[in-house]
């Protein structure tokens, strides 16, 4: 019998395959299509010639751990201990999985806010926890009344994602205040704060769990070098957690993967000194504005986009099709691959919205909009 009977191939894989099959423009999966920084490529070439090809320490290359601690200090004014509070992981995905396996016990309830990233629920189910899926409000802000009503003595974890995939929504001070008030009532609840788009926010700055000292002793913060350095294929990220939680997470990590690719760690250790992640917001803001201006010429209604490189749009006012059929038609008849929102919801609820990834060069964005205008 399957351990995950209701889970099938992810929508990201399905849509990227369809994009290849029909040679459509791929605005589905969240990755950039522009070249990686030449400086980073040169650093990789240099390191491949050195004798750095064997296992690194389980938690990560010590120098890179120190640089992550410095980045956390510079970005959030939070001091973390590089040897006890940071773990380098095979992308955020593995950090999330390891944290859930380590910290969620049989029948523990884990609150997931929908629409939600597709790795959360399977990770909870494999850890024998109970996913409690709650919808965000219509404007995609957290529904604090519903969250408060769902919390009880069985709640072990709440998974938050800010900036949010797929909606591009970011949390406010008030959201953090509400969370902290609730957590005061439930001292054993852990926060898994997925912040892979932490450096991609626009008019309003990202507020991180790292900014909130009250959360530090109970929060696992998840970051992704894939997202922050435009290298999603390298599969590298990290988690920051208090030592008491990290001890448990490392027990899972060492059985799952032991340690992360040495060349990637050496290369990022050098590159992090020359790259300015703080400029990522401006970089993607230009792309967002450009894409949104192009999309004004189409029939889609665009939701606000405060962060991430995703734009959500609704089509319910001009088509009744379910979102899976709708995105398939966009590929086959119009040559543009996108992501439907239903796979992000419990039981595939269809809200007649789709997601575009605008981490693409201008030419790709222009061509996509031209095709979508024909709808
Ligand atoms: C919200 C969210 N969390 C986690 C991940 C996984 O990140 P990584 O590629 O570093 O595993 C993604 C990737 O798209 C994401 O959108």
UniProtKB/TrEMBL annotation:
> Molecular function (GO) terms listed?
transaminase activity
Database matches in SUPFAM superfamilies: PLP-dependent transferases
Q: Which domain of life is it from?
A: Bacteria
Keyword Cytoplasm attached: no
Cofactor(s) the record lists: pyridoxal 5'-phosphate
Which InterPro entries does this entry report, sorted A to Z?
Aminotransferase_I/II_large, Kynurenine-oxoglutarate_AT, PyrdxlP-dep_Trfase, PyrdxlP-dep_Trfase_major, PyrdxlP-dep_Trfase_small
Has keyword Acyltransferase?
A: no
Span of domain Aminotransferase class I/classII large: 24-371
Pfam families reported for this sequence? Aminotran_1_2
Record keywords, A-Z:
Aminotransferase, Pyridoxal phosphate, Transferase
Q: Write the protein's name.
A: Methionine aminotransferase
């Amino acid at each position: 019998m399957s351990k995950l009977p209701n889970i099938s191939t992810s929508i990201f894989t399905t849509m990227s395959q369809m994009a290849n099959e029909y040679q459509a423009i791929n605005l589905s999966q969240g990755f950039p299509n522009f070249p990686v920084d030449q400086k980073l490529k040169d650093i990789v070439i240099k390191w491949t010639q050195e004798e750095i090809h064997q296992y690194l320490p389980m938690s990560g290359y010590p120098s890179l751990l120190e640089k992550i601690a410095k980045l956390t200090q510079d970005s959030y004014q939070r001091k973390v201990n590089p040897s006890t509070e940071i773990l380098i992981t095979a992308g955020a995905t593995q950090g999330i999985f390891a944290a859930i396996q380590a910290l969620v016990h049989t029948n523990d309830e884990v609150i997931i806010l929908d629409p939600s990233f597709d790795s959360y629920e399977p990770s909870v189910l494999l850890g024998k926890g109970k996913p409690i899926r709650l919808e965000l409000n219509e404007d995609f802000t957290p529904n604090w009344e519903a969250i408060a009503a769902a919390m009880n003595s069985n709640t072990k974890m709440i998974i938050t994602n800010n900036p949010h995939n797929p909606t591009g929504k970011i949390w406010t001070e008030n959201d953090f205040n509400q969370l902290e008030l609730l957590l005061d009532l439930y001292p054993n609840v852990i926060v898994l704060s997925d912040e892979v788009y932490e450096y991609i926010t626009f008019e309003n700055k990202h507020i991180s769990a790292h900014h909130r000292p009250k959360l530090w002793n109970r929060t696992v913060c998840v970051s992704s070098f894939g997202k922050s350095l435009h290298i999603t294929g390298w599969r590298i990220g990290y988690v920051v957690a208090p030592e008491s939680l990290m001890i448990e997470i490392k027990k899972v990590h060492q059985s799952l993967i032991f340690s992360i690719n040495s060349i990637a760690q050496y290369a990022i250790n050098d590159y992090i000194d020359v790259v300015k992640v703080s400029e990522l917001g401006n970089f993607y803001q230009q792309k967002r504005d450009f894409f949104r201006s192009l999309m004004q010429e189409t029939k889609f209604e665009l939701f606000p986009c405060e962060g991430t490189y995703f734009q959500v749009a609704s089509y319910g006012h001009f088509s009744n099709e379910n979102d899976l059929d709708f995105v398939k038609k966009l590929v086959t008849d119009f040559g543009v691959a996108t992501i439907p929102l239903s796979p992000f919801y419990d039981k595939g609820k269809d809200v007649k919205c789709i997601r575009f990834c605008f981490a693409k060069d201008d030419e790709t964005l222009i061509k996509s909009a031209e095709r979508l205008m024909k709808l």
